[in-house]
Design a protein that fits this description.
Strand order of the largest sheet: 1-2-4-3-5-6-7-8
Radius of gyration: 16 Å
Distance between the termini: 22 Å
Largest sheet: 8 strands, mixed
CATH architecture: 3-Layer(aba) Sandwich
Shape: globular
Number of helices: 5
CATH topology: Rossmann fold
Number of domains: 1
Helix content: 25-40%
Order of helices and strands: EEEHEHEHEEHEH
CATH class: Alpha Beta
Number of strands: 8
Length: 212
């Protein structure tokens, strides 16, 4: 696996720490998977166990992955916002991936808080292949409402025993989407310890079945 570190300028005050991971043996053309991390106030960052597990599975299958720290996390400058500002971070990373890295076919993968940011920012991210959302925190941040008229396939993954975001919230949310969604539950809690590779395999299968 080859790693390239870089910084993305979002504004004069905010620069986002990011890394591109790619396989030396195989690569899926101009596709890139951008993975967003969970809530930083609970220890979330680009080195989260789920982020790493999903990243490693996808790179092994030939999908380059971009991971990054939201503002105020790790080496990313600025201060944590209310989610609106973190949307700007994701938009900036998407633009950099397309325009500088020349990986123009984007897949967004979000975990927990990262899933919340990803879905709320969707209409501002340009053309996407699909979106994969792990433990989407439905109803937690009212001003970051989800986009339901998405126009692309969305995969939802959730732990059956999640006591942070009960699985019932996601099941209530799914009928609102106008486009095809897939829902997969895993026998685990919110943190997926020991289940990271399973999550990565589910996402990889979902993407491969799109035949892109």
């Amino acid at each position: 696996m080859h790693k390239t570190d870089f910084m993305v300028k979002v504004s004069d005050e905010v620069r986002i720490q990011a890394s591109l991971y790619a396989s030396r043996e195989k690569e899926k053309g101009s596709i890139a998977c951008i993975i967003t991390h969970p809530y930083s106030q609970w220890g979330g960052n680009m080195q989260n166990n789920v982020v790493i597990g999903v990243r490693n599975q996808l790179v092994k299958e030939g999908f380059p992955c971009v991971t990054f720290n939201f503002r105020g996390v790790g080496k990313s400058t600025g201060s944590m916002g209310d989610g609106t500002q973190e949307k700007e971070d994701l938009i900036g990373v998407c633009n950099y991936t397309r325009n500088i890295l020349h990986l123009t076919q984007i897949i967004i993968i979000g975990y927990s808080y990262g899933a919340l940011i990803s879905l709320s920012a969707m209409k501002e991210l340009g053309e996407l292949i699909c979106m994969c959302l792990i433990s989407y925190p439905s109803g937690f941040v009212p001003h970051l409402s989800p986009e339901f008229d998405v126009g692309i396939p969305i995969l939802f993954i959730h732990g059956e025993f999640d006591d942070v975001i009960p699985i019932s919230r996601i099941k209530q949310l799914l009928p609102n989407f106008t486009h095809k969604t897939k829902f997969v539950s895993i026998s685990t809690d919110h943190f997926y310890n020991g289940k990271e590779n399973q999550v990565g395999a589910i996402i990889t299968e979902f993407i491969n079945n799109l035949k892109i």
